Amino acid sequence: MHEISLCYSLLDTVAVHQRANMNKSVSLVHVKVGPLSGVEPDLLHHAFLACRTHTIGDQATLRIDTSAIKIRCKLCGEFSRVSVNSILCASCGAWQTDLIEGDEFILQRIEFIAPDNFTESKERKHVR
Ligand SMILES: [Zn+2]
């Protein structure tokens, strides 16, 4: 289950931002996962619950958004949204396509809890 190592990598990055934000408690870690990333969202969530205690604490929750698979046809130039098992141009049916989106694993946002108010840090970063 490589989600454990991905999770530690993710939480290492979050911990860097936590230190940069005066070690405020982390309330939310928001990631975006593409269907072709090789990351299974359910396994990532379980890994996060197992790993967070030793890194950023028990209070942090993980929000996982999944993206669509988007391609651009090399023959007709059209952009299409496709499914995992049919990566063909929706316009002309060609298999010669470029992947535009769908293989990413991105840290989108980290939210911190401040003692008297709520602040947040935004980041968009490829974790690997
Ligand atoms: Zn096409």
Automatic annotation (TrEMBL):
InterPro entries: Hydgase_Ni_incorp_HypA/HybF_CS (IPR020538), HypA/HybF (IPR000688)
Residues bound to Ni(2+): 2
Pfam families per UniProt: HypA
UniProt keyword Zinc present: yes
UniProt-recorded Gene Ontology molecular function terms: nickel cation binding; zinc ion binding
Binding site for Zn(2+): 73, 76, 89, 92
A GO BP entry: protein maturation
Alphabetic keyword roster: Metal-binding, Nickel, Zinc
Function description: Involved in the maturation of [NiFe] hydrogenases. Required for nickel insertion into the metal center of the hydrogenase.
HAMAP family reported in the protein's UniProt record: HypA_HybF
Similarity annotation: Belongs to the HypA/HybF family.
Entry protein name: Hydrogenase maturation factor HypA
Annotated organism of origin: Alteromonas australica
